Amino acid sequence: MNFDSIRPIADVELETRIRARLDSLTKPPGSLGRLEELAVQLGLIQSTDMPRIASKAMIIFCADHGVVEEGVSPYPSEVTRQMVANFRASGAAINVLCRHGGIEPVIVDMGVGKPTRNFARESAIARAAAEQAIETGFTYAAKAEILGAGEMGIGNTTSAAAIFSAFSGLDPLETAGRGTGLDDAGVARKVEVIRRALVLHRPDPQDPIGILAALGGFEIAAITGLILGAASRRHLVMLDGFITCAAAIVARAISPAALDYVVFSHCSAERGHKKMLDFLNARSLLNLEMRLGEGSGAALGIGLLEAAVNLYREMATFQSAGVSTSTQPAESPSAEAR
User: Fold this and answer.
1) Which of 107, 129, 186, 291 would be 182's cystine partner, CB 3.0–4.6 Å?
2) Which residues, listed in sequence order, are joined to residue 266 by a DSSP beta bridge?
3) From the CB of residue 209, how many other CB atoms can be counted at a distance below 10 Å?
4) Is residue 236 a contact partner of residue 44, using CB atoms and an 8 Å limit?
């Protein structure tokens, strides 16, 4: 893995050309809002003033978490394996959304049935294993030019909330939510489990891989690698919700420029997600009160990205359509001319 190859996408001359074309299209300047920003971002990522949507893949990393034994999820770990089988049978929500958007789903087993250790009692994974999981995710960035990041893993909102608290310093009461449907007592238990883990591990925000090893899941480490790998290849990554954004926090700590290649698809209903987006200085495209995971929000976001690029490439310009660019009414002819 070569993180030194990750560079910011800023290019003033190229951005000026892209925005000039946007302003030449038959619409008021800026009237397509965030869709215009998506076209600019993809153009800068692809280093062209005619960005394109070519191959699209949704990479769904799946793994189990030992912290589930602390009662932090209303579902048993066995559900991870069952849902992966559902993905492979094309029966899950993400399969439907990928079919709808012409996106190839890629299911990656990062540790289904082989959970991490319980991070409330010891480090979740060895540091070398965390690095290997990052490297695995890094290689999947070659699957397509437009990548969606999805996940499945019972207990992974607990891991994501712990990672967020470790980097931000926020109390777990602010970062941990209901996950797959905890009641109030379950959320309180989840908060206390994360608090104990933070005291146990004393995570150092200057050591992002150390935080992953202490608190993370294999799928979160792999998504971190996917983000870094995409940035190294100048591919775009559409992130999903709370768990994938926890990976973005780790990726930013490793290589800040990597987030230039990321789009945040939606703000989920998970309690800490809005705070997480704020911590990342990020704006989501959508807020549909979703909390499914799997990559569901990312699939919808890729659809918006594709719409943005098609508008940019296919709309007529004022010149080609013979439409006036003047904002003033035409002068009425003089009495003498009449």
Assistant:
1) 186
2) 286
3) 18
4) no
Per-residue confidence band for 4, with pLDDT thresholds at 50, 70 and 90: confident
CB 164 within 8 A of CB 171: no
Pairing type for strands 104-111 and 56-63 reads parallel
Please tell me the pTM assigned to this model. 0.95
* Rounded Cα–Cα distance for residues 26 and 44 (Å): 23
For the annotated catalytic residues, the residue numbers are: 294
Nearest CA among 308, 208, 285 for reference residue 239: 285
H/E element, 166: helix 156-168
Kindly report the CATH number that applies to the domain delimited by 54-303. 3.40.50.10210
Going from the C-alpha of 334 to that of each of 218, 323, 324, the distances in angstroms are 77, 24, 21
Whether residue 36 contacts residue 128, with contact meaning beta carbons closer than 8 Å, is answered with no
pLDDT 10s digits, 268-278: 999 999 999 99
Boundaries of every domain in the chain: 54-303
